[in-house]
Structure formats: structure tokens, C-alpha cells
Amino acid sequence: MNDVMDHTPAEAIGRRETADAPIRPEPAAQLAATLDLGAVPAEGDPLPPGWHWMYFNPFLPRSSLGPDGHPKRGGFLPETGLPRRMWAGGRISYPGALKIGEPARKESRIQNVSEKSGRAGRLCFVTVQHRISQGGVLCIEEEQDIVYREPPDPAVQPPEPAAAPDGAEWSEEIVPDPTLLFRYSALTSNGHRIHYDRTYAQQDEGYPDLVVHGPLTATLLQGLATRCRPGLRLRQFTFRGMAPLFVTRPFRIEAKRGEGPDDLSLWARGPDGELAMRAEAFF
Asked: In CATH, what is the architecture of 9-282?
């Protein structure tokens, strides 16, 4: 349920929405298979970090979707007048363990809305806070940064991406084939066409090919972080998308020691050495 009313974007600050859902074991098993993981989380196990993005996603009628495949604007998220939407980054705290097989509640609130003009035209930034609990105990607290943009201008070249850091102590290759993108879209109820409709991605949003999901990259980085620190519990994770990654172009997820004794600095290195995502993990 939510308390949605029609407002201008800035007036949506404070809008709330609540959803209840079971943390079913089947999606967790399906994501484990999609990522080719040997171990499959079972009922009663804690949900791995980042896997909560598979839950609480409404599967809406097609008539309720916009031309990009996302739900039409003007519901919980404000109508910005800008057609392109991108999940730019976020900050996640894990104060408790979200258990597979138990019911959970997600409480969402629009925390901030701001607009500005940049090199690519008008931008609108929406920060959404989510709190997921089980049995009244807070398990996950998250802030998501969503950016709305104008249609691409063919005359404006995207800025040159920064180079990824050197000095990786851990590094793994990821090959984002079409099946991976399709399965992740299905598991997260993500209808955004840039992930499975090449014609739309190229002609409508100006990308050279299908785009790898930002949350998928963030999930992979959290998985790497937990493998780098076996036996420790991930307490906080922050990430920011820096440049898009594309289907069939292998990239690397990498990490090195952070400032704290168990903290990690992580990033995704694109196929040309560019910085695609940067992140920090705290244990």
C-alpha cells in the first residue's frame, strides 16, 4: 500500500509505500543457478547480500508499463517529465540477517528529489530509502539513487570514462551473455528494455548494445567481497555506477584492502580498462 498523491517531483519528498512478501527459496535457488554458484542457499539460511533485489517487485499489467518497460511514472516514484531512468548507485546497511523462507516487510520513502542541468541536459535525482524487516527486526536499510534524464542527443558525445584502479588483490572475470541478462531481468521483474531489446537500446536510448544491469554488477561485487572475507558478515556496502557495461563484452570484478583491517575497496573494470562501478565494503 502507499499514500500516493499527484505532486510535482520535489513535492513527492516524504511519500511512503509499504509491501509485504515472503522471502521464498525458489528465487534464491534460481539466482544461484544463474550465477553458476556451487552452493545454493536453502530455507532458513540468510539471504546473500544484494539478493533482496529479487523480492518486493510488483509484476504489473503491461498496460501499466511505459514505453521503456518500467512502470509508468506518477505512482510511488514522481513524474519527472524525463523519459530515461538509471539506477546510479546506493548505500546499504545489513544490521540483521534476512532469512529465506520467512515473511518480510519493506517500507519505502522518497527521501530527496533534486533537479539540475548538466552536459547531457536536464537531470532529476531521486533518492529512495528502503527498510526491510522480519518479525519487527530491521534486516536491511538502503538508499537508492535514481537518475532521470532527457533523450540522448546524437550530437553530444559521452564523456571519456575514468580508468579503473590498479593494484587489485582479487580479480574475477564475468562474461555477461544474453542469457544472464534475460534471467536477471526475469528474477527481478525488471522490464527495462535496455537489458533485452537491442533495437530499443540502440535507437531509443543511444547505447551500442544491451546494457548490463547496475544492480547485477553490485550483486556480483558483494559476492566477491564476501569471498574475500570468508567468515565475516558484510555490514555496509556502497556503490556508484560510473560507466555502462554491455552484453558479451567480458569485464572484471576486482578488490583490494581498504582503510580498515577488514574493509575492501572494490570496482568493476570494463573491457577497455574503464571504471564501470566503484564500491566500498565494510565488515
From this structure: Roll (3.10)
